[in-house]
User: Fold Ribonuclease Z from Prevotella corporis.
Amino acid sequence: MVDCGEGTQIQIRRSKLHFSKIQAVFISHLHGDHCFGLLGMISTFGMTGRTNPLHIYAPSMFEEYFNESVNLFCNNLDYEVVFHPIQTNKNKIVYEDRSLTIETIPLSHRIQCCGFLFREKPLAPHIKRDLIDFYKIPISQINNIKAGASWTTDEGEVIPNEKLTFPAEKPRSYAYCSDTRYMPNLHEMISGVTVLYHESTYANDSKERAKLYYHSTSQEAAKVAKDAKVRKLLLGHYSSRYPTEEILLDEAKSIFPNSYLTNEGMIIKVSNDD
Assistant:
């Protein structure tokens, strides 16, 4: 989960997602609409019989207050809550497993704030099973071939690796850029990502207001997407001054056509085929 504002538990229930599926929460910054739902959710998890640890990745300045709050309001949990302090001003990998890395994206907001970049790790190439059988290659050699090895037959013929395999799907990536001013160099950190979420609080007629309050216009979000050569841009964090967000979408599309408005409950496909 990325950010945890008020109403998070309601949205989880509406999505039919079981609470136990949430293993980690990444908090971009300490404004209420991004973190006020966290303690209540932790408490609810305790009442639903959770036993697996919950990992919280959040700005380091939050650690002392967070630990005190958990001790005060959630002191009888049957599961462990593990806090991982992050430095919001550094681009750094903060989580890694066999299939995924997550790194911080320093942003420019009124307080310490960062985004998060989720990257799938490259998969091994796929084996051409018919050729493996044809050349009578032992099962014990499959992993070597996936790792790039060629095969030499008993007659001395070298079968190149590219003949025995075909490439795996291109790894996907998702960049979440929370509240931030327009950053001219942001595209360098998120270059080529599959899907970019970038806040788009204002329309272009409020460009100076966006700068003053450390937010972005939808056109600025679109410029980041264009410069980064992403596949898809998701807009969000709209100002309530707009009765409809279509003006934000239209202005973004004028710069980056593959732009979309986000809304509660939407499911977005992260795909390199779009």
In short: DSSP finds eleven helices and 14 strands in the chain. The chain has a mean pLDDT of 94. The first strand starts at residue 24 and ends at 26. Residues 1-86 form one domain.
